[in-house]
Amino acid sequence: xxxxxxxxxxxxxxxxxxxxxxxxxxxxxxxxxxxxxxxxxxxxxxxxxxxxxxxxxxxxxxxxxxxxxxxxxxxxxxxxxxxxxxxxxxxxxxxxx
Length: 97
Hints:
alpha+beta; four-stranded antiparallel sheet; 32% strand; globular
């Protein structure tokens, strides 16, 4: 069953453009190429300095493997200079209607 994961990060003042241009420009192609990543969309709110990533994964286990990879490669540590706190993550299961 596919899952959607949202990751919302609030950025430090004046860091939004740098975050989008530098960090995400490098990280997002890697995420999209990661096994079982179905889709990834980036939404930015310039007023609140927030970035919302909406990811679709083949399964929860695939997304968890990706997060472990992010920890191993230091990708999550690279967020620290940009964000004002830890990201908020929510996982949604796809439900039949």
